[in-house]
Amino acid sequence: MRLDKFICKSTELTRTEAKKVLKSGEVRVNGDVAKNAAMQVHENNTITIDGQQLSARGSRYYILHKVVDSICSNVDEGYPSVLNFIEVDKAFDLHIAGRLDADTTGLVLLTDDGRWSHNVISPKKQCQKTYRVWLRNGIDDDKLAVLVTKFAQGLQLQGEDSLTRPAILTRVAAEDLLDEQCYKSEVLLTITEGKYHQVKRMFAAVGNRVVRLHREQIGAIVLGDLAPGEWRALSPDEIALFS
Ligand code: URA
Prior knowledge:
- The chain folds into three domains: 3-53, RNA-binding S4 domain (Structural Genomics Hypothetical 15.5 Kd Protein In mrcA-pckA Intergenic Region, Chain A); 61-122 and 224-240, Pseudouridine synthase I, catalytic domain, N-terminal subdomain (Alpha-Beta Plaits, 2-Layer Sandwich); 128-218, Alpha-Beta Plaits (2-Layer Sandwich).
- It is built from six helices and 13 strands.
- It has helices at residues 3-10, 15-23, 114-121, 141-153, 198-205, 236-240, and strands at residues 27-29, 32-33, 47-49, 52-53, 61-66, 95-96, 104-111, 129-135, 168-171, 186-191, 210-218, 221-222, 231-233.
- The strands form two sheets. Strands 5, 6, 7, 8, 9, 10, 11, 12 and 13 form a nine-stranded mixed β-sheet that branches. A four-stranded antiparallel β-sheet has the order 2-1-3-4, with no helix packed on it.
- A hairpin with a 2-residue loop joins strand 3 and strand 4 (52-53).
- Helix 1 crosses helix 2.
- Residues 100-101, 104, 197-200, 213 line the site of uracil (URA).
């Protein structure tokens, strides 16, 4: 990793402050003064600032229950970024592994480990994401059977050059409905990619409309009973799923 990045990861310093400290000559790598921010360093190098040894802080991994009218972006733009909810140092250094629309709720993963988030979002990795979907038009059993086949075969969405990957559509069992009134219009959809507005476009392509959307699961990581707006660090087992 670059020396300035290592300093940021293991201290409270911003990238600009790290560069200033480097210029000042206070940083040593294995005993030698180091001023080059781009110098490549490893965890087994001894890196000191003003004689104090830095120890590499590991990467960070969190799960958040996103609320409506927040955005999956590293800047506040119209709505607040979901990063405002994560009450840790330098939360805005994290990035979002799989964005949701402003009006979508549910499971969001955040990390500063680029390789890990790649494993979550790359279509090549085929990680399953499960959404609870509320539809404008209820689906009876015959229609559901037709849609299950269509979604499994893949849909041609406008502007895309390939079909959607096989997706799994299921009805929610009556006892698991979040809205008891919605037996015919509350369904679960599992997809393994993340095209722009994919779930909304898939239902639009079959003449329906998503009125509410909520992500419940990514791979084996489930939102569970995390309350809206709440977050927690992922467990080592959860982190290992995409490491
Ligand atoms: N698909 C959508 O249409 N929106 C989301 O937020 C996520 C998946």
